[in-house]
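Checklist before submission:
- one chain only
- standard amino acids only
- sequence pasted in full

Submission:
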Amino acid sequence: MEPRHDPGLSAALRALPLEAPPADAWPAIRARMVAAKATPARPLWPWLALAASLGLVALASPLWLGSPDLGVAPAAPVRVADAELDSLKARSQQLEGEIHALRAANPEVDEFRYALEHAIEDELTLVDVGLTAPGGDRHALWRERVRLLEELKSTTGTDTGSLLMQASLY
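Returned file contents:
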């Protein structure tokens, strides 16, 4: 960085009186500094414990999503189940394309819509993790993924500015 010379500042500093601070001020300053050091800092471990527990919940949630239901009727024949799974996958791809087109048509996102979309995408991430995990109810996960994508599509296509204006009227 290059030093800048400000003639007005230099003149103002030269105009200040040359006085030393009072000698009795230093003990008061020292006492305040000692008191500030004596105040115990808040411990960090409760926040670390909270972060660790939230991380554990996030990692374990796919296991809960895929847990089998003991009171469920026998599974449908494989051919019908495969057809349903294929249609869910196709609908998922179609919705992703529509969301991409909506975002390309309207790239500006306000803070409210960003928060809504981000929350839905976080849930989608958990479902996707469940889909990559072995076992679990793949049909239920794909149904949930399609539901979340439909919700994301409607959120992406919504003008949240008008929603905020309506909410502010009440």
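Reviewer check: Residues 78-105 form the longest helix (28 residues).
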